[in-house]
């Protein structure tokens, strides 16, 4: 009996020793960063439309707002713009002429919310946030996501703008689906931010690949693939051919590489190299593939890398808002 009690006592102590640091995880982290200058607040987002999106996010960040609110407000800019034809309202449809949207969001507490294949709602990112905050689940898809959005008071709208409908009708004539690298028929806004409190959050939203099969879901609403945030380490988001990002659980990989000590730049490079290797191993043509990652760590350092040239991203910190051409593998 004594032995058993001893054993239980030791086990309890051992597990306390194991679990305690995780309760204090943030303290540990703060310790390791406390002596270094942290570049905060800072926000990064993908592609040209990242500039305007960053402006919106910055309004919140510079007023000591929360990174979560900043990334939601930021990505709503391209989502609501009918001239941005790869995100939200105005997005190109699938091959059945339906605009189906994919989005996800993640905060500093690892709360997550996501919607996939959602139709008729202009701001899927806000529905993803409502999934995160108001349901016991983390992901809703299709009709279920739409029913939930309507219940929450979101308006049902027609998202197919004339220009997108015209392109779709043109596409139908041949009905050939060959997504090419850097042909602007996709492009996602992924945004990651570090606020003045030192907390990270991210959002990712898209209409996905133009003329995809109805029901196709890409990487963008999949936590770990199109977006990942670990408040002790850093955050990453992705754009490009979602199938390739999902194959390597891309953004989780980037964050884990940063956990191992890699800089955001090196972590993005290594994730891209994994895609390069798998593409070659599978006998596929790398020239038809584009994937770009952006990453940010707890110190406010950032980086990016992509398979081929043509991907850019926007960075806003105290020094201003600028577009940067990402470095790439296929020279
Ligand atoms: N990653 C998105 C998707 O596969 C598209 C893109 O970012 O270009 O749906």
TrEMBL record:
Name any one Pfam family assigned in the record. Asparaginase_2
Top-rank lineage group of the source organism = Bacteria
- Cite the CDD domains for this sequence: Glycosylasparaginase
Q: What is this protein called?
A: Asparaginase
Source organism of the structure: Flavobacterium okayamense
Gene name of the encoded protein: aspG
